[in-house]
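Students often ask what a holo structure prediction actually looks like on paper. The answer is less mysterious than it sounds. You provide the chain, you provide the ligand, and the output is a string of discrete structure tokens encoding the 3D arrangement of the protein together with NAP.
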Amino acid sequence: MVQENVFIYGAYGYTGKLIVDLAVKKGHRPVLGGRDEEKVKVIANQYGLQWYAFDCNNQEAWDTALNGKQLLLNCAGPFSLTIRDILPACLRNKVHYLDITGEIDVFEYISRFDKEAKKAGITLLPGTGFDVVPTDCLAVFLKEQLPDATHLELAFDSQSGLSRGTALSVLNRFHQGSAVRKEGVIVPSKTASVSKIIKYGGQERLSVGIAWGDVFTAFYSTGIPNIEVYTGMPPKMLKAMKKASKFGWLIKTWLLQIILKRIVRKKIDGPSINKRETLRTYLWGKVMNAEGKEVVAELETPESYKLTAITALLCAEGVLEGKVKSGYTTPAKAFGADFILRAGGSRKIK
Ligand SMILES: NC(=O)c1ccc[n+]([C@@H]2O[C@H](COP(=O)([O-])OP(=O)(O)OC[C@H]3O[C@@H](n4cnc5c(N)ncnc54)[C@H](OP(=O)(O)O)[C@@H]3O)[C@@H](O)[C@H]2O)c1
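The corresponding structure tokens follow.
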């Protein structure tokens, strides 16, 4: 990464900080940004980095901050609340756009700007974190093993818990329920309505269907028309989710959203350093073709937030090295199925 040609917005969030710390450890000197001047200043001064503080709807400030930059790594999420202000600024300033979203509607929105991005000569690469790098690589690997696959199932088991931003993103879209892809089309399904037992690294675990980013991206990466994503979940939590899903309409109301978001901001920070350094994440995937032939593959990676910092920076480095075509793309389309194996400590289990 050339010095100071990368701008990280949302730099003082839980994940933004991990990314900044790792970037500096790797010898990079990104410029930092965020909407709270005091918070940006603290982290920038900690590493002696340049900074800008501005609200994400301030287009003039974007033009100033992006002047002379080649790449923006957006860590300010829920991304459904920031993307509509940030993407136009990147297109206008001809700056590559990367983020760590896992939100289906955000992938969908960004992919619509493929043509404009090609015209501007920039890459749009959302989902450079845990969601969706390892699952996207797994999906492409499985497609290579069974090229005529018609069905794809992906799953992960992580004991990390959620960061504040992830919890807020979940809360934002909870009322929309889950989602799967059927015959190429994304269709909504009820929250926690599908569950099954999946074996991760030899351990069986109850897993529930979720609206994970791969429902959008794996179709783009593999062309497989039927896609479901699951996550390991304790039975008690599944029960609670089923109950909560009955009150989706209530959770959507502005008053309850304000109350719940306040609770999340107060109570949730994110996985401790001990968790990040010791936990492992297990991923599982299966493809099936029309004749019923199946191929299964598994991956093991570092803890999901630690992995997010590693893969987001690997993606940024790859784009800056000119390895990725302009326009919208996905991590595995951009770098291949083995990309995940470059994230220190990741390995194929089978
Ligand atoms: N792909 C993955 O696997 C992965 C991994 C980690 C995180 N994420 C996602 O990344 C996002 C951030 O997560 P986090 O854990 O870092 O959360 P966090 O600690 O809450 O940080 C969020 C950051 O975004 C900023 N932000 C939020 N809304 C904003 C807005 N409207 N305008 C400007 N800045 C805004 C926050 O600034 P303020 O504090 O000023 O609000 C903060 O700097 C979440 O959406 C999360 O789901 C994805």
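The chain has a mean pLDDT of 91.
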